[in-house]
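Recall that a protein's primary structure is simply its ordered list of amino acids. Everything else, from secondary elements to tertiary packing, is in principle encoded there. The following example makes that idea concrete.
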Amino acid sequence: MNNISKITALGLLSLSLSSAYAQGPQDIFKSDKQKSKLETNAPSLRHHLKERKKALEAWNALPANELQPVTLTANVTAKNRSGVRELRIREFHYIGDCGYSHGGQDSGVDTPTTAQAVFASDLADSYLNQAALLGIDIDSLTIEIHGQPDKVKTNRVWYPRNFLYTLYIDSPASDAELERLAVLAEQNSAVATFVKSSIVPKLTIDLKSSPRERKVDGTTLASLREYIYGKRQAVLASRELVKEIKKDKEAIQKVLAPQQGPWVKVFPNGVRQLTVNDKYLILHDNPAYLGGTNLGITSAEGLLGILGTCITHISLGQAAERALDIDSIALTVEAEWDPRAGRKGYEHTPIIPQNIRYTLHVLTPENAQTVKEWIEAVEKICPMYNLFKDTQTFEHRIVRGSFKKTIMALSVK
């Protein structure tokens, strides 16, 4: 690493640490004892579970004829020269990005890590539901999740899989009660059930033509062409770096070494805070009729979001690989959710989102056959498309006590 890289790395580390340890309203007390005493005035997760039980019992009592299926929607747009993926779900807005080595700016979450957090979020929500219905008290709950290497070699493309999630929980319940809770929570998690299934998203291409010759005079940032050109340089350089890493056994072991994954913390009001890439926070919540406060998207909506952002990202990468001229990319991901599932007359209706599909809106001078081959290449390697298409597994472990973040050291050479 050259001197400029060293200074940059150290500067980023210093900035990260100074932000993490900066003082704030939590630091006004001279005594932890006094702080703890006053914190007992805050709402408790136990109270939320009691309120959630009332909401769930009222929800479960509704007859099927009072409900109707709805279409869930996520919209993703690749933004001009930055290439960041803007995800919009209802009134909520998120930014996805990749690291510098892939032509990004590290200004938002990466999709594979976010996907694991989405899975953990729905599991956490299901734990709350089942604990409320069973009358199990919980004082705190956090789930950390990460993928594991395949036990036997497969021909699958790369994506996180073989999921192991750790439930960090403070509860007076017995070990047997917590284990029963874990089984019921996983069985009733719509997202975990979806991921365990084999779901192939359906594609529609909305192709619009643009002129091959396009003058760019610097007065607009509206085109993706400049970003894709820059991304191509990053992709080619990254490919050479991978070749070098493959020659270094120690480097390979570092890449393959287990690392702490994203985690989801449940707040006393039931809102789930997803921590992604150690620094980005996303909120998931439920509608009020399910005991939530509608402060964020649902986990099921997050499922559509990760598919959309991943396909958009890989589309940009494949466009760069093929040196295509692309002026705009946007995706609409949709699926039906039927709230009548499990009710009388709908006992066999799946709890998972159905008919998941996406429409690629693309503006380009490339012809239809070139676009078709481009998107076929995208689906072949897209991590989330293939994660959905293949069946996945989950295993869990239960740890009593609070979750502790592992501080990852930054190696500067």
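The longest strand covers residues 354-364. Residues 258 and 272 are 25 Å apart (CA to CA).
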